[in-house]
Amino acid sequence: MFLGFSLHAWITIATVLTMFSVLLFTKLRSDLVFLGAIAVLFLTGVLDAKEAFSGFSSTSVIVIGVLFVVVAGLTHTGVLQWIVKHLLGQPKSYKGAVMRLMLPVAALSSFLSNTTVVALFVGIVKMWSKKLGISPSKLLIPLSYASGMGGVCTLIGTPPNLIISGLYADHTGTAMNVLATTIPGLFCLAVGVLSIIAMRRLLPDRETPEEVFEDTADYTVELIVPSENPYIGKQIAESGLKDIHGGRLIEIIHFDEVISPVPDDEPIMGGDRLVFAGQIDEILDLKKSHGFVTADQTVFTTDKEDGRRRLRTAYVALNSSLIHKCLADITFEKDNNLTVVAIARYGKRIEKSPHEVRLHAGDSLLLECPPKLDINTESLKSQLYFYDSEQVPNIGPKTFVSTAIMLAMVVLSALNIMPLLPCAFLAAIAMLVFRCCSPDQAMRAVNWDILMVFAGSVVLGLAIQKTGIAEWLAYQTLDVCGTNPIVVMTAICFVATFITEFISNTAAGAMFFPIMYEAATQLGYEPYTFLIALMISVSSSFATPIGSPTHMLVYAPGGYRFSDFMRIGLLMNIIILAANIFIVNIVYPLTPLP
Fold first, then answer.
1. Region of 238 on the Ramachandran plot (φ > 0 left; ψ -120 to 50 alpha; else beta)
2. In this predicted model, what pLDDT tens digit does every residue of 241-285 receive, in sequence order?
3. Which DSSP string do the residues of 198-214 spell out, in sequence order?
4. Burial letters for 250-261: b for 16+ Cβ neighbours within 10 Å, e otherwise?
5. Which residues pair with 253 in a beta bridge?
6. DSSP class of 265
7. Tens of pLDDT, residues 52-110
8. Of the residues 261, 310, 321, 405, which has the maximum number of CB atoms within 10 A of its CB?
9. What gap in Å lies between CA 553 and CA 318, rounded to an integer?
10. Which helix (H) or strand (E) holds 220?
11. What are the backbone dihedrals phi and psi of residue 123, each rounded to the nearest 5 degrees, phi first?
């Protein structure tokens, strides 16, 4: 024993602190971090084999995996598109626009993956905001906030709710109702919507990347090779045209043939159109140095649909390996058969050659690529998130079938007719039987990386509790906050809200469950009320763009800066925390343990 802790407890503390540091300061995949933590706890004897791998057999983790299939059925039958089409409308004011947007998004996120919902709405909100004459940056943060606040309204709306409710069932033998968080969640949602409307001046008015990229003449120039040019017959590399000062060659048009990306050994022919991207004034120096002439009619346009190449926009993902790298130093473009034409940051185009820019998370890229580019390949999926989706499902009879299946699952579980796990299995099977999604689509919908994080979170919580760390932290909290249950509940929820700004809400839920559970029992109260408050707290991350995957989905499209989230998010954290503690203790009054 050292300072009251056993060796296994100190190993657990070191593992948790290391995990927190790695997740906060590195881009290492979170599933690998959790897997590494499980390995350390198992190999050092903190947990035995059954305990170390208990997360993979946890009911809550299995439910999450099955729900991926249910969500796939809803997504591929166009349920989201149907709702969007019929609910947004044409509000007359910003207040109306916020309510028309946030309420349907919250409702959808109560049953579906909030990441899926936001991914669909991003493009729609950008177009909708133009019709309303409102900057997209005024609506995209509310979009992300609504998905998070809606997710806490049911146990299946967000993973931490499933994890915490599952751990509660393991400890007490009593399962929570699927709608246990509905009334507190709806109250916090209402407070959140009103707060957004009241604090709308704190939302930035940014120019979006699409507005920056609207006119190709601003960042590309076409030069023609005259018939008697001395460079005819020479290769691109030996002519010094591959990467020039201030720009780069992105495309050659040989009569009707388009060559992009351009290989180093491509020969120059008379009449060729050379399309360059970068600093226009510096590129035009080629007219003097190489004898090229400016094209009278531009062929290269943003709406080009000639079956050969097209322009698409994407942003650099939060965990992308492209971060802090220059395109000139890697083979990313060649490996994926695409060309980066321009780069925007914080809604402003970077006025230099794309190849010379050191990339940051959230940078928007304008790409020239094949019309049927597969964005789900491993090399692209982990690096970029594309704004425009090629997968637009048709709305038809299956739209209503999948909706009925989902509603039946929720009703059967909410009325305690059947536990959530078998309900989810039946719903997933029904989605496949009625062909709302194919088996391949269902398997692709299961995010195994996320399941690994969930399983690791369960194991981490078990280690914290088994080694006595949770009990010690609970006693320390009581020493600092006294024995007032409301004060203790508020203190733990406040810390959880802060922590979830930097790590996944699932991890935060698993870490704080044993602490909150022990604190409640030490005070002599049933932990139920405390845990409902914890569920809302770990999903209330508003102050940083890394606090939630949905924040990163809107970060680049809105042209936001990191400080934009802090300016309004810190106030939102405090407001929702106060609303959370207030409503939870009214709906679920504290009950002393027998």
1. alpha
2. 877 776 778 788 877 777 877 888 888 888 888 887 766 667 777
3. HTGGGS-----HHHHTS
4. bbbbeeeebbbb
5. 258, 273
6. T
7. 888 777 777 787 788 788 878 877 787 766 766 677 777 888 899 999 899 988 988 88
8. 405
9. 10
10. strand 220-224
11. -65, -40
Cβ atoms of 16 and 478 closer than 8 Å: no
**CB neighbourhood size of 174 (10 A):** 8
Residues 6+ apart with CB under 8 A from 288: none
Q: Which one-letter amino acid corresponds to residue 227?
A: S
Report the distance separating Cα 463 and Cα 457, nearest Å.
10
Token output for 77: 């039958």
Q: How many CA atoms lie within 13 A of 531 on its CB side?
A: 29
- Residue 249 phi, psi dihedral angles, 5° rounding: -80, 120
Residue 472: closest CA among 23, 18, 2, 50? 2
Which tokens sit at 173? 């033998």
- Over residues 401-450, the pLDDT tens digits come to 988 998 898 888 878 788 888 988 999 999 999 988 888 888 877 777 76
Residue 225 to residue 59: CA distance in whole angstroms: 67
Q: Which of 461, 425, 435 is nearest to 65 (CA)?
A: 425
For residues 342 and 247, give the distance between their C-alpha atoms in angstroms, rounded to a whole number.
Answer: 10
Number of Cβ within 10 Å of residue 553's Cβ equals: 27
**Both tokens assigned to 527:** 């932990």
E-assigned strand segments in 452-517: none
pTM of the model: 0.67
- Torsion angle, alpha carbons of 406, 411, 414, 415, to 10: -160
Q: 104 phi and psi, to 5 degrees?
A: -65, -40
Residue linked to tokens 């185009």: 349
